[in-house]
Amino acid sequence: MQTQELLDRPHSIDVPEDLQGQVYSPKGISYGSRKFYIESYGCAMNFSDSEIVASILDKEGFSPTSDIFEADLALINTCSIREKAEDTIRKRLEYYNMVKRTNRKMMVGVLGCMAERLKKTLLEQEKLVDMVVGPDAYRDLPNLISNVYDGDKQINVLLSREETYADISPVRLDSNGVSAYVSIMRGCNNMCSFCVVPFTRGRERSRNANSIIDEVKGLFEQGYREVLLLGQNVDSYNWKDPENESHVVNFAQLLEMAALVSPDMRVRFSTSHPKDITDEVIYTIAKYHNVCNYIHLPVQSGSSRILDMMNRTYTKEWYMQKIDRIYEIIPDCAVSSDIITGFCSETEEDHIETLELIDYSQFSLSYMFSYSERPGTPAAKKYPDDVPVEIKNRRLSEVIEVQRTISGKLNEKDIGKEFEVLIDGVSKKSELQMKGRTPQNKVVIFDSQPGLKAGDYILVKITGSTTATLFGTVLKQLNLNTTA
To answer: Is the peptide bond before 467 cis (omega within 30 degrees of 0)?
Structure first.
């Protein structure tokens, strides 16, 4: 399996052409003919945030474009979790400014985590942007845009203890019409020593459970057949009804509420923290056919000493027990993970423990990275980044190879089995084939057949595999309301 580094992959987002409108800004500027262009980098939360931004801009009369050369507003939604991601975004901003030489009307804005972390650097020192907007300040975009038109550079990176954007209906960007993100909470209370998220996204806030379920229902009515419930740590979701504080909804209960919307609406979620995922959550997954048997459970390291330095609040042994519990309750569950190699002071023995834990856990896939020190994090303040780059990279290569082998063997075991697959589109390699996903979140490629379309459920027999993909034969189409 190839390293899956979402952070390094740009997504230029096409927004449907029907998102047109004409309104006026608070200062009376007409935006009817204005167009916006947006790129998103990083985690799923950033892509979800871009859909919120698109909704706000839509209400201000901005229409979308996939051509940056005709954009009045070019936005880049950023990630700060790795230095390489920041370098990529800087290169994109330099490109934006090159475009600006031929399109002088265009304003450039940076959104998201990198915006919060490097606000003054981007705006004042490097002068790459016209405005900087943090993850909790998107409602202020109309005012900021208006002020930029008046000739003033703008910045709003204030963090909020309340903002969840619960009342904003996201514009589904770059959508296949089958799967959609639904944000259930924002921020993070975990202070992992390597991570910038608590500083760029603030404290945890759980979104109104009723608004979440209303959004899931709305998506189902629009033809969507899968939702991904998003949060930095979904298992700590905890919403109290302001009108009845004795009414509290935890994540397992929210998961059940989402599953009950329809047996034909698949439910996935990301991301779980090992210390917070409960038996109640695992049993809920097992109980409902349409809650996918897939858990992303980042471990980061297989060394208890390194885990302590990372402030992950669990040991290797504790994590192994959690893995055992998942497989005990859901034998066919697929578990994926995040792995960091070369964290501060990591020894060869620590590295070997990580390789052993990957083998023990039998991850279906992993997102694997070498450690990248983030300024301002506890690790940057307390620990020297003392593992040489060449050692980090060698260890990363070994982690990738172990994971590739495990992924290949697990996929080989699926040959001959039958899976319910949700079709999500045409294969990227051939228009004569389609693709979909199993409940274990594995990609399946199969030959197209008359009448099959994205959003259909089919029964597929697996006939072949690679380390990253399954191949199969369609046995039959599954009718709606009969898949539970």
So the answer is: no
Amino acid at 63: S
Tokens, residue 89: 């975004």
pTM: 0.87
Q: Specify whether the CB–CB gap between 202 and 159 falls below 8 A.
A: yes
| pLDDT score of 353 | 98
Per residue in 225-256, pLDDT tens?
999 999 999 999 999 998 888 899 999 999 99
pLDDT digits (tens, 9 = 90+) for 155-206: 999 889 899 999 999 988 877 899 999 999 999 999 999 998 888 889 999 9
In the chain, the percentage of residues whose pLDDT exceeds 90 is 75
Question: Do 450 and 425 form a contact (C-beta atoms < 8 A)?
Answer: no
Q: 421: burial class by Cβ within 10 Å (0-12, 13-18, 19+)?
A: buried
User: Given pLDDT bands bounded at 50, 70 and 90, which one contains residue 480?
Assistant: low
Question: Please, are residues 427 and 434 in contact by the beta-carbon 8 Å criterion?
Answer: yes
Q: How confident is the model at residue 90 (pLDDT cuts 50, 70, 90)?
A: confident
DSSP code for 121: I
Q: How many whole angstroms separate alpha carbon 480 and alpha carbon 353? A: 46
Bridge-based pairing of strands 418-426 and 443-447 is: unpaired
Token pair recorded at residue 185 = 């909470």
Query: Which H or E run includes 37?
Result: strand 35-40
User: What element of type H or E holds 266?
Assistant: strand 266-270
Distance separating alpha carbons of residues 222 and 467, to the nearest angstrom: 34
Farthest-apart Cα atoms in the chain, separation: 65
User: Token pair for residue 138?
Assistant: 């998107």
Q: What is the distance between the alpha carbons of residues 467 and 340, in angstroms, rounded to a whole number?
A: 21
Given a contact cutoff of 8 angstroms between Cβ atoms, the answer to whether 299 and 357 are in contact is yes
Residue-range domains of the chain with CATH: 6-156 (3.40.50.12160), 179-410 (3.80.30.20), 418-478 (2.40.50.140)
